[in-house]
Design a protein that fits this description.
Distance between the termini: 37 Å
Structural class: mainly alpha
Number of strands: 0
Strand content: under 5%
Shape: globular
Order of helices and strands: HHHHHH
Length: 138
C-alpha cells in the first residue's frame, strides 16, 4: 500500500513538473503574452498562466487515468476547436521563432497574398484532420 501511495505521489509531482515546464516554454516562446497583447487583456496575464498550467496538469491526469467526461458531442466539438487553436498557436509561434515565413517569402520573392496563403494552410490542415477522424484512421 505504501508503495502505491509513494508511486502516486511521485507521478503527481512529475506531472506538475512537466506542466510547469510546458507553461514556462509557452511563456518563453511568448505565446501567452502575445495572445494577451492581441486581445488587449494583459492585466489577466497571471490568470492565463495559471489556466495554462492547470490545463496541462488536468490533461495529463485525464490521459494517464483514462478519465472520460460524458458530456456529448457538443462538448467534443468545442474541445476540438480549442485544441486546434492551441496546437495552431504552438505551430505558428515555433514558425515565428524560426523566422520561417519571412525567410521563405524572401527566398521565393513572394510579396503579395501571404495572409491568403496562411488561411489556405489552416483550411488544409482542418480539412485533413476532419478527413482523418471521419475515416477513423489511427
Amino acid at each position: 500500500m505504501w508503495q502505491q501511495i509513494i508511486l502516486a505521489f511521485t507521478g503527481l509531482c512529475a506531472g506538475f513538473i512537466i506542466a510547469g515546464g510546458v507553461t514556462g516554454l509557452m511563456i518563453g516562446l511568448s505565446i501567452i503574452p502575445r495572445y494577451a497583447g492581441i486581445t488587449h487583456t494583459a492585466e489577466h496575464m497571471l490568470l492565463y498562466e495559471d489556466v495554462t498550467f492547470w490545463g496541462t496538469v488536468l490533461g495529463n491526469l485525464f490521459y494517464l487515468y483514462k478519465i472520460t467526461l460524458p458530456l456529448g458531442t457538443p462538448f467534443l466539438i468545442l474541445y476540438g476547436i480549442f485544441s486546434g487553436i492551441f496546437l495552431g498557436g504552438w505551430i505558428l509561434a515555433l514558425a515565428e521563432i524560426a523566422d520561417v515565413f519571412p525567410i521563405f517569402s524572401r527566398r521565393i520573392r513572394f510579396t503579395e497574398g501571404l495572409p491568403l496563403v496562411i488561411i489556405c494552410i489552416a483550411l488544409g490542415k482542418t480539412a485533413g484532420s476532419l478527413l482523418y477522424y471521419y475515416q477513423g484512421w489511427q
